[in-house]
Amino acid sequence: MSKEKKGVRLDHISKIYQDPKTGKDFYAVKDTSLTIEPGSFVTLLGPSGCGKTTTLRMIAGFESPDEGEIYLGEEAINALTPNKRDTAMVFQSYALLPHYNVFDNVAYGLKLRKVPKDEIKNRVMRILDLVELTGMEGRMTNQLSGGQQQRVALARALVIEPSVLLFDEPLSNLDAKLRVSMRTEIRRIQQEVGITAIYVTHDQSEAMALSDNIIIMNKGVVAQMGSPQDIYYHPNSEFVADFIGEANFLKGRLDQMDGDHAVLNVEGSSARVPAKAGMTQGKEYTVVLRPESAVLADQGGLPCQVTLSCFMGSYQNYHVKVGNTLVKLTDYNPKNKRIYQVGESCSLVFDPESVHIL
Amino acid sequence: MAKSQSAALDRKKLMADPVMVGTIVVLITFLTLFILYPLAILLVDSFYGGEGFTLATFQKVMAMPTFRTAIGNTLKVGFLVGILSTIVGLLFAYVEVYVKMWKFVGGLFKVVSMLPVVSPPFVLSLSMIMLFGKAGIITYFLLGMEDNSVYGFWGIVIVQTLTFFPVCYMMLKGLLKNIDPSLEEAARDMGASRSKVFLTVTLPLLLPGLGNAFLVTFIESIADFANPMIIGGSYDTLATTIYLQITGAYDKQGAAAMAVVLLCITLGMFIVQKYYLEAKTAATLTGKASRGRMLIDDRSVTVPLTLLCSLATIFVIMMYACVPIGALFPTWGYKFTPLTFKWFGQVFTRYHGLQAFRDSFVLSLIAAPITALLSMIISYLVVKRKFKSKGFIEAVSMLAMAVPGTVLGVGYIRGYSGGLFHSANWSIFADAVVENGKVIQEAGALHGLFPNGLLGGIYGSAAILIIVFVVRSLPTGTRSGISALRQIDKSIEESAYDMGADSFKVFMTVTLPLIKDSFLSGLVTAFVRSITAISAIILLVTPSVYLITVQINEFAEKGAYSIACAFATILILITYGSVLLMNLFIKYFGTSRKLKPEKVKKAKTKRINIQVIKEG
Predict the structure, then answer these.
(1) B484 at the A interface (CB within 8 A)?
(2) Of A66, A81, A92, which to mutate for an interface test with B (greatest number of B Cβ within 10 Å)?
(3) Residue from A22, A31, A53, A64 whose CB has the most chain B CBs within 10 Å, to mutate
(4) Of A79, A97, A113, Cβ closest to residue B500
(5) pLDDT at B616 over 50
(6) Predicted complex ipTM
(7) b/e for B520-542, b at 16 or more Cβ within 10 A?
């Protein structure tokens, strides 16, 4: 598509809702500023009620922000109605028009734009080809499977060539297998078209698989924004670390600095981890340890005791206690080593480079 | 926290949509002019004497013994009718949902729930008199009773119960179906007998629903005009007293005060019913039954219950059948054979039948699409859009449900006979005053344009009848429209909006096609309600317009039952025909078939329920 790509910018956006039970106002989205680069795929990720869908609906125009301004490219679009905004949304429930067939559904937006008939036909067929639905154009939407309906919804949004494509948890109504194949599909199509996409989901693996950038939201504010690797390996808070993947938190006081590493006292033993700027002696720090970043050994790490040992096929699942802290581990290659049994005392070993200090 | 920015933006977005703004303005104007204003003017009239606030009018009407009796009568009748209708309705609903019955009984039930919908409101009064009156077929000719009087309290109670219980039956049937059978099975499993289960599980769950049904019929009974008029005899209710106060005593101000009293009663009950009981019903009976119910097939239960209900239905059907048969007898009460069509002939040759049918038909035909479209637009706005005056639109269109026709009629007389706000009396609209050939006062500047004051011209015209038809059917239409729209996923319309359609386009290309069935049934419902309406109409109709219901009422009052029956029979044929037509239409062109191919079989037997609560 030859159209100029546009980014989206949110400038100190807030949205206030009223709690229907107590009648009190609260911030659904609070003072959020974001910049989404033209042509990039950005995911808004967070638990339910974190404000991600509200943010998306404000970009689409269904909700009006209470503070701040939304820009599409250079244009401020706060006062524009959804039908005047150059965005197209793919809904969670697909929201296909049930009284139209596939072709008419996809052609709907073009007809509203008074595109000539021949061109409508060409464009619809081209898009249906892109989403691999050629030959289905005469079907009614209720004769399609969930995945096919989702493709129609995507085609309908793409065909009007919007500047920005918005996705509101589009895969949550599909079964697990289809979800995986559809997300690859969505990513492929987005790359092919080169369109700016904003995608709302609460499924972290979906976010990881799809995005150039992930924005993690919590309680109406942005918790962290960055590439999937960035967020996984360098979370900036316990919330983010816990939300993306699984995380163990080891707490320890700083004993001493050792070059660019810090030596912490964790439950009475010393642990060497990469330092961060501005650490002070004696203060307590939290270390994020991913379950796959540590293994059990007979000695050489933090002393611990096994409380759960469970064979899961591709990995061995351990729960161990380091002092009073519970640590969950997944050992992907248990056969090469011995398998530790419940009650055994052993040692928790991790590579200093694979942990991250908050 | 300030929500001012979003409010301002929402307003801006709304203003960017001129069709929507226009629609809202038109709606608000319509609702204000034709629902709020007539009611407000009643209040003003009854509290405003020549100079300022006064209670004199109220004191005057309250001092009338006839009026005080009428209040007592109305409440007594309403209370009893409410209770009886709820009990009978519950019995029917319970038998249908819980008891295994013979196939044909289900058919009978369907007929009984349909009959009050398609027949004019006072048909049962007619047949009651013809069957059980002084010269009634059953009382006089079969039983030889000399002087049996059906007029008065019991006549009204029986006729109203028979007219209104199908409404309770339909309401309670829906609720009973929503009770999860596993609740009752659990109680049975723990050792409760069937009657114990009914008393300790089913009934408590149903209680708010029963209260709801009771109040709905109570209101209907109080507002009913035609039945007390025909069968009440000297037993006057509020509605008839108000009518007589206007047509007999020419006391419009007194009638206005009485109308305010009647309105307060119905409005109070309506508020309890709508905001308290309906919410409670929804809270106790939510969700769908998880699976089918084991029907009671114990013969000691099924046989008596089915028998009882079948007899009751046959009785009701017989009552209705009496009307067309009554129209065939040569002379009612004296000569029953040979059957003749002469009354049908006379309807057209002597009693302005053609004109009555034409006027009724044309006016209802104009009113029906307006009503259907208005109610769909209101439902769309209420369910799918948010804007400031939405609460007003919803409240006023529902308010109309609580306003008895008689009250509305009086309001229109007071509100429009002298122009809007009695503007015919304003100096700028006033006519010149001429005395002894000398002009003492010049005509007002706008007299030439509006000789009857603002909007005064519609009083006495056919237009006001159409408006009354619309206002009287609007609440039912809106209610069924709202429930139809609530079933449609909000994001379907949002997606169209997002694709670039404005509100008007969304409504025309998405909303309306999706609720086509509901729209059609709203259309027919409005038509049927309009053509059978009487209470408000009878106060507003002028000699230049003939309406069927007014004719029937007139002949029934005169005792010319054969003519009244002939009129009523043709009317029932028209209404039943239009309902049949609608069902056919929905079957072949409706949305349900196209959208749910797997349910074609079901759709074939499905009848669209017209939610009509009969007006009196």
Answers:
(1) no
(2) A81
(3) A64
(4) A113
(5) no
(6) 0.80
(7) bbbbbbbbbbbbbbbbbbbbbbe
Contact A99 B489 (CB under 8 A): no
Task: Report the interhelical angle of B238-247 vs B405-416 (nearest 10°).
Answer: 30
**Chain centroid, CA B545 distance in Å:** 22
Nearest to A219 by CA among A12, A15, A21, A11: A15
> From the DSSP assignment, how many helices (H) and strands (E) are in chain A?
8, 20
Confidence of residue B593 (pLDDT cuts 50, 70, 90): very low
Cβ-based contacts of A160 with chain B (< 8 Å) = 499-500
Spell out which residues of chain A touch residue B501, defining contact as CB-CB under 8 Å.
83, 108, 112
Q: Residue A113 forms beta bridges with which residues? A: none
Record the pTM.
Answer: 0.81
Closest chain B residue to A162, measured at CA: B499
B293 min Cα distance to partner chain A (Å): 30
Percent of chain A past pLDDT 90, that is, above it, reads: 30
Q: Which helix (H) or strand (E) holds B5?
A: helix B4-15
Cα–Cα distance between B37 and A118 in angstroms, integer? 54
CB B197 within 8 A of CB B205: no
DSSP 8-state code for residue B308: H
Q: What are the tokens at A161?
A: 């060539």
What are B169's two structure tokens?
């039956």
Chain B residues inside the 8 Å CB shell of A123? none
What is the residue type of B604? Answer: K
Q: Is residue A237 helix, strand or coil?
A: coil
Nearest to A93 among B16, B489, B502 (CB): B489
**Rounded Cα gap, residues A79 and B10, in angstroms:** 8
Q: Please tell me the distance from the alpha carbon of residue B384 to that of residue B378, in angstroms, as a whole number.
A: 10
CB-based contact, B19 to chain A, within 8 Å: no
Q: Do B12 and A79 touch (CB under 8 A)?
A: yes
Interval B305-346: pLDDT, tens: 888 888 888 888 888 888 888 888 877 766 767 777 778 878
3-state secondary structure at position A198: strand
Q: What is the dihedral of CA B338, B344, B346, B352, to 10 degrees?
A: 170
Q: What is the 3-state secondary structure (H, E, C) of B32-49?
A: HHHHHHHHHHHHHHHHEC
| Interatomic CA distance for residues A68 and A55, integer angstroms | 12
User: Considering only CB atoms, which chain B residues are within 8 Å of A89?
Assistant: 494-495, 498
CA-based torsion, A225, A226, A228, A231: positive or negative? negative
Res B605 pLDDT > 50: no
Question: CA of A206, closest CA in chain B: separation in Å?
Answer: 23
Q: Which of B114, B208, B220 is nearest to B170 (CA)?
A: B114
* Chain B: residue whose CA lies nearest to A158: B499
